[in-house]
Amino acid sequence: MNLLAVSPSPDIRVVTVILLAMGLSTPGKAEITSLDSGNIDDILNNAGVALVNFYADWCRFSQMLHPIFEEASNIVREEFPNTNQVVFARVDCDQHSDIAQRYRITKYPTLKLFRNGMMMKREYRGQRSVAAIADFIRQQQVDPVKEIHSLEEANTVDKSKRNIIAYFETKDSDNYHTFEKVANILRDDCTFHASFGPVSEPERINGDNVIYRPMGDAPDMIYLGSLTNFDLTYAWTQDKCVPLVREITFENGEELTEEGIPFLILFHIKEDSNSLEKFQHEVARQLIGEKGSINFLHADCEKFRHPLLHIQKTPADCPVIAIDSFRHMYVFPDFQDLGIPGRLKQFVLDLHSGKLHREFHHGPDPTDSTPGQEETAGEVVSSPPESSFQKLQPSETRYTILTRDRDEL
Fold first, then answer.
1. Residue 178 CB coordination number (10 Å)
2. Under 8 Å between Cβ of 293 and 299
3. In angstroms, rounded to a whole number, what is the distance separating the alpha carbons of residues 360 and 383?
4. Exposure winner among 40, 64, 156, 199, fewest CB in 10 A?
């Protein structure tokens, strides 16, 4: 692992003085828990919410964050005095490289959120100010479950969102506590609703009941597993709330690029739901086994004009399918071929095997003729467009990046 050389500030005390002068930090004893291999599991497992700062002392961005993080901790402690309700903690990644590797830290500083010991997928990427960090923690304390007071309310939930609706006899039950825990973890992916007692009784013929109400007009889906089994309940809910094909936006682009695996992207006009449905269907049919080795995404053609220009396309050409390997971009030859059995899967396999890259540089393999690879005056076009989405990766103006060599794809 190589580090981008970043010189530390000459005297971090100067930064602290400036922050104090601006009212962004005040003197006081911060309750920041230092984590190591001996205490990390116990502390995180017993914390309702924990915000952990993974840092290195020599990193200037880490140095700048320290007083801000400490003052945010002071403010939050005043509002939430229960020491197990909210924990602010830190890990010195130089001293505890095993912990840094365990949580796949790729940049300093990294602020990760944990709930009852489980690391949340979305880390804190907001403004590094006392007010912003404190407000982020306040938002995490808001109950993600909206109580339904009538069945009519349940029938009029916003169907432009993914909804999980539950019917319980009482809040004070193991079933509801499992549901509440799952809702806290997946609060950013679904909207959660629950009703209790007489209101929920008509939907509890066979006991407490949980359903998934998809976006649009698709029928409800019922959870058939045990509600006291957290792992089963979480797995079912995650499958419903986190789609196989996710939308990439400028807001989540950094998070998606940091997952470190190539993108298979459908560029489509926002209103073109038919092309999106076809793409989703073929991804599920042909590529379910590739989940984890490539990210399946869709993007608004108008918002992402620049990546389209990289592959010599415009919104008028959409729908367009492309792969961004973070080195190069490759275009799926013809959207109309999407439904041909195995065609989309072969496109992805050709990326993993290096064939797409090889053929761009050296022409079609001797035994193969690949559509879309054109020859001009006897010479093969050999310059694949450079990656466009790599520009959404974490910025070197905010982080010290731990660089890893990528395969040449």
1. 20
2. no
3. 6
4. 156
